[in-house]
Hints:
Elements: E1 4-5, H1 8-17, E2 22-27, H2 32-47, E3 53-58, H3 63-68, E4 76-81, E5 84-90, H4 95-107
Parallel strand pairs: 1-3, 2-3
Antiparallel strand pairs: 2-4, 4-5
Amino acid sequence: MPLEKLNADQFEKAIYDSQEQCLVIFSRKTCHVCQGVVPVLEDLQQQYKGKFGFYYVDVEEDKDLFQRFSLKGVPQILFFKDGEYQGKMAGAAEEEQVVDKITEVLEL
């Protein structure tokens, strides 16, 4: 199942208004590393359905959102809980690393 794509307005609603526990991957369609990480997140999304949200931001379409977090390079996975930033992972994240971070965020 594909990740839900967010633009700036949707980002505000999903992260800050609903205060959902979630991750957002900042990615680019032409990024080879991103193309390896996104399927891992799509697989994990099924395990956490209803408990943890999975979202996608295309940095070429939403540069302002990318710059707002002072991110450099893609992919970048940002984690949120109750509208609060909880940390990030950069580069080729392995499934186990993502699961560990999700567990940490859920337990905070």
